[in-house]
Design brief:
The protein is α/β, with parallel strands linked by helices and 709 residues long. It has 26 helices and 22 strands. It folds into four domains: 138 residues, no CATH class; 64 residues, no CATH class; 262 residues, Ribonuclease Z/Hydroxyacylglutathione hydrolase-like (Metallo-beta-lactamase, Chain A), CATH 3.60.15; 167 residues, Rossmann fold, CATH 3.40.50.10890. A seven-stranded mixed sheet has the order 6-5-4-3-2-1-22. The chain has a seven-stranded mixed sheet with strand order 7-8-9-10-11-20-21. The protein has a six-stranded parallel sheet with strand order 14-13-15-12-16-19, sandwiched between helices. Helix 2 packs across helix 8 and helix 17 runs antiparallel to helix 21.
Length: 709
């Protein structure tokens, strides 16, 4: 009976092991139930005790055998949890159900020494195999626990990053508001305008065909300070009209002195040199020199580089010397991510950009700091010391104070006779091209540019000041392909609609700035019945989009109706419960962030789809996913874990860069003497150079350029 009871106990534990390894916690690990049972007998006995449904199921399944088995087994599967717990504690001892040794009287004659030695060796081998199997099971358990802990840590870090993003964004907005208030307190023209508004007499003549009751209801009560000013004018016997004339005169802009371009400056030649992003995408930086005056257009980060080499490759040429200003074309990391490091080297450095870019930069820079911190935190103990990060949050705060917003069409003087003018470049909110004027020499830099209107931004507008310039520096990201953006958008919407109509969900990993907001607003306007979730850094950027445009003729209302954000505290719940709709989240290449958590849940789902809508670096998980065959159901390595791919995976061409036709049109419209290609790859640039040359344009090599006399 004891032998039968031991076998039955092993079967009961085996059944508990099968239940455990098929649970949601271990479903993706493909654990062997037998090895799992051998390595975790004690925990599985406790599992039987803790789950009444499991005890009942075992009691029903093995009722006949339990009737003749050891009483401890009936107690283990009984209804009383206290009795079951005591039985489990007793059964944890493997010797409890072993057969009792026979008395000496019934023993057989002793075996020979060789037989005893062979039996001992066999026992040793069996014990070694058992120990090996137990060690393997314990190792597998520890590996699963480690992987689960890593996933939980990644989720916690993403939640923390969400919270810090909101905090830093609010801090940046508060700082900008304080600066605006401080500027207004010293702005005589603004103060004069306020006094004119208060002191000017109100026209009491009612408008024609206006209901007097409506006029009375619309009348704004007089503020005590307004009445105080009127009383002061009356008490001082100051003629109100004379006072208003003085205040209105103060409102008139003071005529600035006309810039004098000295003869010494005129003799200095305009030179241009890419310090990064010339024949690659990343680390964009253009050095413009006029004599000893030095100006940078952009200073971006390069991906997949050590922290101490993440800036433009030739940035050392300006780190220690004179630098008069930086112009940031837009807020993407590859164009603006290195600026705080430059401000740390040059504390008085002026950073010019549009107001929209100025609103976005603090949030994007703060995100970079968190990426730096995470890279440092993941350095293995005892490994090579990680280089210092390019900057910290303190340098971000300092760089934010150096921002100088500049409107489209307005000019700013960098030095005597050297000015800059920004113009709309399309691409993303706030993106600008820049015209640098030095005497009779003019340089035009497009930055990242799109001549096609998008849902969130209009296309490029080439100003008169750019036309006929000496040099046009233009990006060449898509210089080898022509696209039909509207057709790509329609295909994207059709895939979303088909998937959602069949009850599925669509994951759209997207860049946090620009692409995510474009996709969200497109879905809101074109598919208003499809639920949309916005997650990661993209949701905070969307709020900035709304705040920056709320007073404009065509405000960008992204949230509302069916578009809502994912609270960090509810992400896990929504990943499990959100089954119909679209999730837009970062990162766009599936390298990190909430996109990884969502992808783990979406990719195994045959009713789901994953649509990549942006550039995929050849070493990114997004590129590896696209490389899978359309009919493949092979596993996919994502952030250290294998994920089964059953969902539809495809790419939608929703680029915010001008294509070959668009770039050619821009070159023709500007009509520069020389053209330099940047922000692209050498082979594509060579082919596009030949194309432009055949059209009669003079294309110079991507390198140092000097204005010809």
């Amino acid at each position: 009976m004891s032998r039968t009871s031991k076998q039955l106990l092993d079967e009961l534990i085996g059944e508990a092991a099968r239940v455990a390894v098929t649970s949601s916690r271990f479903a993706d690990h493909q654990a062997d139930p037998a090895a799992f049972a051998e390595a975790n007998r004690g925990q599985l006995l406790l599992l039987i005790v803790r789950y009444p449904k499991l005890r009942t199921a075992l009691a029903d399944q093995y009722a006949d055998r339990l009737a003749g088995a050891d009483p401890l087994l009936r107690q283990l599967t009984g209804a009383d949890p206290v009795v079951a717990s005591a039985a489990a504690a007793a059964l944890a001892d493997r010797k409890v159900l072993l057969p009792q040794p026979r008395s000496k009287k019934s023993e057989k004659p002793s075996s020979t020494a060789d037989e005893r030695r062979i039996a001992r060796l066999r026992r040793d081998i069996e014990e070694s195999r058992g120990a090996r199997d137990r060690a393997r099971g314990q190792r597998d358990w520890a590996t699963r626990e480690r992987d689960e802990a890593r996933r939980q840590l990644d989720a916690a870090l993403s939640d923390r990053d969400d919270a810090l993003t909101v905090v830093e964004s609010l801090r940046a907005q508060l700082s900008m508001a304080r600066r605006e208030v401080a500027a207004l307190t010293a702005d005589v023209a603004h103060a004069a305008g306020v006094l004119v508004e208060v002191a000017a007499p109100v026209d009491a003549t009612p408008a024609i065909d206006v209901d007097p009751r409506e006029t009375a209801q619309a009348r704004v009560p007089v503020h005590p300070q307004d009445a105080r000013l009127v009383a002061a004018l009356d008490a001082g016997k100051v003629d109100r009209e004379s006072f208003l004339q003085v205040m209105r005169a103060l409102q008139m802009p003071w005529p600035p002195p006309s810039p004098q371009f000295s003869a010494a400056t005129r003799d200095r030649e305009l030179t241009v040199k890419p310090l990064g992003g010339g024949t690659e995408i990343g680390g964009s930086c253009l050095l413009v020199e006029v004599g000893d005056v030095r100006l940078l257009v952009d200073a971006g980060m390069r991906p997949r580089q050590p922290l101490d080499r993440s800036g433009p490759p030739l940035i050392g040429e300006v780190r220690g010397g004179r630098l008069d200003a930086v112009v940031v074309t837009h807020a993407h990391h590859d164009h603006a991510g290195y600026v705080p490091a430059l401000v740390a080297d040059h504390p008085g450095l002026a950073v010019y950009c549009t107001a929209d870019t100025a609103a976005l930069l603090p949030t994007m820079w703060a995100d970079s700091v968190r990426v730096f911190d995470r890279r440092v935190a993941r350095t293995p103990p005892g490994g090579p010391e990680l280089p210092l990060a390019p900057y910290s949050q303190a340098e971000v705060d300092q760089a934010q104070r150096r921002l100088r917003p500049l409107g489209f069409g307005a000019s700013a003087e960098i030095a005597a006779g050297i000015t800059i003018e920004l113009f709309p470049a399309g691409h993303i909110l706030g993106a600008a091209g820049v015209v640098v004027t030095a005497g009779e020499s003019r340089l035009t830099v497009t930055g990242d540019v799109s001549n096609q209107a998008q849902t969130t931004v209009p296309g490029l507008i080439v100003p008169q000041s750019a036309q006929g310039c000496g040099l046009l520096v233009i990006e060449s990201t898509h210089c080898q392909r022509n696209t039909n953006r509207e057709a790509e958008v329609e295909q994207f919407l059709a895939t979303v609609q088909e998937t959602v109509a069949s009850g599925g969900r669509v994951l759209v990993p997207a860049f946090a700035l620009g692409r995510a907001q474009e996709v969200a607003l497109t879905l809101r306007r074109r598919l208003p019945d499809v639920p949309v979730l916005l997650d990661g850094l993209a949701k905070e950027v969307a709020r900035i989009y709304e705040q920056q445009t709320e007073m404009r003729p065509d405000p960008l209302y992204i949230y509302g109706d069916q578009v809502r954000e994912v609270p960090a505290t509810q992400r896990g719940e929504l990943i499990a419960s959100f089954r119909r709709g679209v999730i837009i989240t970062t990162s766009g290449m599936l390298t990190a962030g909430p996109a990884v958590q969502w992808a783990r849940a979406v990719l195994p789902d045959p009713n789901a789809a994953l649509l990549l809508v942006g550039y995929q670096d050849e070493e990114s998980p997004g590129a590896a996913l696209l490389a899978l065959s359309k009919d493949s159901r092979a596993g996919f390595e994502l952030n250290g874990a294998r994920v089964e791919v059953n969902a539809q995976v495809s790419k939608a061409g929703l680029s915010a860069h001008a294509d070959r036709r668009g770039l050619t049109s821009i070159v023709r419209t500007v009509g520069a003497e020389d053209v330099m290609l940047v922000h692209g790859f050498p082979a594509a640039q060579r082919e596009f150079t030949e194309h432009l040359t055949r059209l009669g344009h003079r294309v110079v090599r991507t390198g140092r350029w000097q204005q010809r006399r």
